[in-house]
Amino acid sequence: MPSYYLSYEPIPQSAYAKGDIAVAFWEIVSQRHNAKKFNGKKINNEKITELFDIIRMAPSADNLQPWKIKVISDRNTLDKLTPATPPFNQEKMRTCSHLLVFCADQDLEMRWSRVESAARQAGLPGREITHMAGVANMILNRSPEERLNRSQRDVFLAAGNAINGASSLGFDSSIIGSFNPKEFTRILKLPRTLEPTLIIAIGYAADTPPQKLRFSKEDVFF
């Protein structure tokens, strides 16, 4: 993997011409695996901050960015949350460096208000803001169930940035979709507007990556 991918040094323009960026990204997505356990080593704050920036860049419907991510690194809280996951996920909880609890934010009115304000401050043309408002209103006028579903789908886009971003920074991740959202809400004292949707444990893997099995291009694209 090119050194600049880990150090975040300026990428030389020649790299784009040579396709080095595409090669590096291919290595990230092809070598990433869902860690079964971690070695307990803490990820330093600098890398965690870089990961946060990568996650923030995720796309979302009408740029509403309907997610909040609770970051947990203290052992006491992780120990409280561990029983709220099935036994086959608990080793990850016990050994990870940090746990990211991806929550779908149901307060979409607040989200749109902030996006609209930022768009106006950034000087976006009025016609673009009007178009954004039209799409946002379509989302805001849906039923509570449809709004939550829309937000949760966007959460998975942010999660994609998280797992690939972790690999690009030199550490590992594990997606945990099986857990008790109500228990997480209770233990973490989350507001009612946030729905825990997905959790991602990050750290340094202590297992051997299995062979990656994927359907062929012919089975996927038609």
List keywords for this structure.
222 residues, alpha+beta, NADH Oxidase, 4-stranded antiparallel sheet, globular
What value does the Rg take, in angstroms?
Answer: 19 Å
Topology as a string of helices (H) and strands (E)? HHHHEHHEHHHEHEH
| Cross-sheet strand order for the largest sheet | 1-2-4-3
User: What CATH architecture of the domain at 34-107 and 143-207 do you see?
Assistant: 3-Layer(aba) Sandwich
Instruction: Give average pLDDT, whole number.
Output: 90
CATH structural class of the domain at 34-107 and 143-207: Alpha Beta
Individual helix count: 11
* Relevant CATH superfamily of the domain at 34-107 and 143-207: NADH Oxidase
The general outline is: globular
Description:
There is one protein chain. The protein has 222 residues and is of the alpha+beta class. It has a domain at 34-107 and 143-207: NADH Oxidase (3-Layer(aba) Sandwich), CATH 3.40.109.10. 53% of the residues lie in helices and 13% in strands. It contains eleven helices and four strands; from the N terminus they run ααααβααβαααβαβα. It has helices at 3-7, 13-18, 20-31, 45-56, 75-81, 87-95, 108-121, 126-140, 144-168, 181-188, 217-220; strands spanning 67-72, 98-105, 172-176, 194-203. It has a four-stranded antiparallel sheet, sandwiched between helices. The longest helix has 25 residues, at 144-168. The protein is globular, with a radius of gyration of 19 Å. The model is unreliable at 1-11 (pLDDT under 50).
